[in-house]
């Protein structure tokens, strides 16, 4: 039996040596690799939102066949200037499709709309994107018909555009035999980051 025990000890010792050798061999075959960055630069975000430059022709709607004319709008990034517009009867309107572009790196949200009253005319501002001044209504809208008012929930994403409709309409019921002039009416749109 002692020979069997001796063989068993030799077998266990051999097994332990084999396991130890395999562990050392595995450790010798292992490798550590690493990843290193060179230079990482975070580009600054840019704020670049404004109107699309160009000339926008006013589109006429209504029942007048004469006496109504929609002038052109000269559009720069920061402003819109509309030439003379003439409305002659109730339900006449001129619509200007203005495109707001966001080429910056920040999503923009329309923060507020401030109406600017025409010179010497009292106006009603029941909605911030609508101004009723005598027989004329000035409105910023999301649709060409002017039914969906522009509000401060409007978002212009990065590299996206949004069309805003400026609608000037004869909404009164009175017809005047003399011209009524209003000048310098408008809106100031304030965009903020979303």
Provide a quick synopsis of the model.
The protein has one helix at 2-29, and strands at 49-51, 54-57, 59-61, 72-75, 80-82, 93-102, 108-116, 124-127, 130-133, 136-141, 155-156, 160-170, 186-193. With 194 residues, it is mostly beta strands. The strands form three sheets. Strands 1, 3, 6, 8, 9, 10 and 12 form a seven-stranded antiparallel beta sheet that branches.
Which key terms come to mind for this protein?
single chain; mainly beta; Immunoglobulin-like; 13 strands
What does the model show?
It is a single chain. With about 190 residues, the chain is mainly beta. The protein has 2 domains: about 1-35; about 50-194, Immunoglobulin-like. About 15% of the residues lie in helices and about 35% in strands. It is built from 1 helix and 13 strands; from the N terminus they run αβββββββββββββ. The strands form 3 sheets. Strands 1, 3, 6, 8, 9, 10 and 12 form a 7-stranded antiparallel sheet that branches. A 3-stranded antiparallel sheet has the order 2-4-5, with no helix packed on it. A 3-stranded antiparallel sheet has the order 11-7-13, with no helix packed on it. Strand 8 and strand 9 (about 130-135) form a beta hairpin. The longest helix is centred in the N-terminal third of the chain and has 28 residues, at about 1-30. The N and C termini lie far apart (about 85 Å). The model has no long low-confidence stretch (mean pLDDT about 90).
């Amino acid at each position: 039996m002692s020979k069997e025990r001796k063989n068993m000890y030799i077998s266990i010792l051999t097994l332990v040596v084999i396991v130890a050798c395999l562990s050392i061999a595995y450790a010798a075959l292992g490798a550590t690799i690493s990843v290193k960055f060179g230079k990482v630069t975070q580009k600054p975000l840019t704020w670049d939102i404004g109107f699309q430059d160009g000339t926008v022709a006013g589109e006429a709607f209504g029942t007048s066949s004469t006496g109504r004319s929609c002038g052109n709008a000269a559009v720069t990034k920061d402003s819109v200037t509309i030439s003379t517009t003439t409305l002659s009867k109730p339900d006449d309107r001129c619509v200007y499709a203005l495109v707001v572009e966001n080429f910056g790196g920040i999503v923009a949200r329309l923060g507020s709309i401030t109406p600017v009253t025409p010179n010497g005319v009292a106006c009603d501002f029941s909605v911030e994107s609508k101004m009723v001044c005598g027989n004329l209504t000035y409105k910023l809208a999301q649709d060409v018909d002017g039914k969906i008012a522009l509000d401060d929930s409007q978002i212009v994403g990065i590299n996206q555009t949004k069309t805003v409709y400026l609608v000037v309409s004869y909404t009164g019921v009175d017809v005047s035999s003399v011209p009524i002039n209003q000048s310098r009416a408008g809106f100031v749109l304030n965009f903020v980051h979303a």
